[in-house]
Design goal:
Distance between the termini: 78 Å
Structural class: alpha+beta
Strand order of the largest sheet: 1-3-2-4-5
Number of domains: 1
Number of helices: 7
Mean pLDDT: 91
Low-confidence stretches: 182-187
Radius of gyration: 18 Å
Helix content: 40-55%
Shape: globular
Order of helices and strands: EEHEHHHHHEEH
CATH class: Alpha Beta
Number of strands: 5
Largest sheet: 5 strands, mixed
């Protein structure tokens, strides 16, 4: 007897973007949810998305430092689960707001705050349904040269400045100029 197995397509983190999908500048950030510097950088990211609305898009990739922050792995999995419901950004912000309370049961409660009502979410977290996507992000980050977090890439180039609004804005402005050729002056 043959069994019909339901195939569920999972949206991996590399395909989840915040901002205008066809924006000329793509910023990739490697981060985790328990890290204080990542939380500070997230506030900068919110301002950048506002300031450069329509001109940038963010791709968030997980890089949990599990030897220091044991709950960051599951928090990343919860964010991936939320992205399956189109609620990544909402969950992302809720997780940062609650970064000191990221136990598995708490993650289920945080998901409700983010607007996710899937009953199987807790099972997905317990069973590490999205765990290998976190490991894929870590491996990708290591290949790109990520050694500490937060770590930003602007249109594929590793950003080495300060993670401040002013510094990142300057780099984004430069990337925007490169992305759009200057118009020739009329003769």
């Amino acid at each position: 007897m043959a069994f019909n197995k339901e195939v569920v397509e999972i949206i991996p983190p590399k395909n989840v973007f915040v901002g205008k999908i066809d924006a000329p500048v793509t910023i990739t950030e490697f981060f985790e949810y328990e890290n204080e510097e990542c939380a500070k950088a997230n506030e900068v990211v919110k301002k950048l998305l506002e300031e450069f609305d329509g001109k940038i898009r963010f791709n968030f990739r997980h890089f949990p430092l599990t030897t220091i922050h044991q709950r960051s792995q599951k928090a990343g999995e919860a964010a991936i689960a939320a992205s399956q419901d189109g609620k990544f950004w909402e969950m992302h912000n809720v997780l940062f707001a609650n970064r000191r309370n990221l136990g598995t049961t708490s993650l289920k409660l945080h998901s409700k705050e983010a607007g996710i009502n899937r009953k199987q979410l807790l099972d997905e977290l317990v069973n590490s349904t999205y765990g290998w996507y976190i490991h894929d992000d870590i491996q990708h980050g290591k290949k790109m040269g990520v050694t500490e977090i937060p770590c930003f890439f602007i249109n594929g180039e590793k950003y080495v400045g300060k993670n401040t609004f002013e510094s990142l804005s300057k780099e984004i402005e430069a990337a925007l100029k490169k992305a759009k050729p200057a118009k020739k002056a009329a003769k």
